[in-house]
């Protein structure tokens, strides 16, 4: 099965977190993690799909998707977690404002439990260098999540950090086939734009690629068509016509024929 290469996933995680928080000097451990992964530049081939024939009907969430439809459903078996419990860690030992927020927010606590279960299963399935790499990536992710305390919208930053990591782990695990990227023709065609829609995972997501830059966007409620977004990025599509805001670059696009 084809899936996003691990270095790309780590680069996407770094890009996603940096989009919603101030830039800070990295510590030695953070630099070591960053050194192990190249930037997202030049990696667009990593999302080449395995299934041909994707069309406009395959894009996004079903038309008329509501907030209730997009509430983060559990991707764990009932034995994995007590739905009424808090996060996976001991809140009496919360070591950052981000962890304190997770402890006080049931929705974030649920995301934390889901992430712990998915990460635990991935870790149990690896060994040797891959096991060490996965642990290093998770430590880097925790540090990035904790930096959300410096973001303007801390809750959104923390939520998107969890959602992005859940998407990464599911794709990286090799159990999800990579759909064929949908190519778009845009009014500003200096850089190619594609979207790869992962509608068989939770949370549903899209990997948006503009030139050499990529972002993981999460499915959002939409009255019609489909909508994906995160801090600094928004993608809306209806009947093959799309509008894109990619960190300030605004495009009007249509599905390429």
Automatic annotation (TrEMBL):
Gene3D superfamilies: 1.20.1270.180, 2.40.128.200. Residues 1-25 form the signal peptide. The keyword Membrane applies. Residues 26-45, 51-93 are annotated as: Disordered. Residues 184-249 form the C-type lysozyme inhibitor domain. Residues 91-169 form the Lysozyme inhibitor LprI-like N-terminal domain. The keyword ATP-binding does not apply. One of its GO terms (cellular component) is extracellular region. Residues 34-45 have a biased composition (Low complexity). Pfam families: LprI, MliC. Keywords: Lipoprotein, Membrane, Palmitate, Signal. This is MliC family protein.
């Amino acid at each position: 099965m084809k899936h996003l290469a691990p270095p790309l996933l780590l680069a996407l995680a770094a890009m996603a977190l940096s989009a919603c928080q101030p830039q800070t000097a990295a510590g030695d451990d953070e630099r070591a993690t960053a050194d192990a992964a190249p930037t997202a530049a030049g990696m667009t081939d990593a999302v080449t799909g395995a299934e041909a024939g994707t069309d406009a009907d395959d894009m996004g969430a079903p038309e008329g998707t509501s907030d209730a439809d997009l509430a983060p459903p559990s991707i764990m078996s009932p034995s994995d977690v007590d739905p009424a419990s808090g996060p996976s860690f001991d809140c009496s030992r919360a070591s950052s404002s981000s962890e304190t927020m997770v402890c006080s927010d049931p929705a974030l606590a649920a995301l934390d439990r889901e992430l712990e279960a998915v990460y635990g299963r991935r870790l149990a399935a690896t060994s040797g260098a891959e096991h060490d790499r996965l642990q290093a990536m998770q430590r880097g992710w925790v540090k990035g999540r904790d930096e959300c305390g410096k973001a303007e919208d801390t809750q959104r930053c923390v939520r998107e950090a969890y959602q992005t990591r859940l998407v990464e782990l599911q794709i990286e695990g090799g159990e999800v086939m990579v759909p064929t990227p949908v190519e778009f023709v845009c009014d500003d065609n200096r850089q190619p734009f594609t979207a790869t829609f992962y509608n068989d995972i939770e949370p549903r997501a899209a990997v948006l690629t503009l030139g050499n830059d990529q972002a993981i966007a999460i499915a959002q409620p939409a009255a019609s068509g489909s909508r994906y977004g995160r801090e600094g990025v928004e993608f809306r599509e209806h009947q093959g016509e799309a509008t894109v805001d990619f960190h300030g670059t605004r495009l009007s696009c249509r599905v390429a024929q």
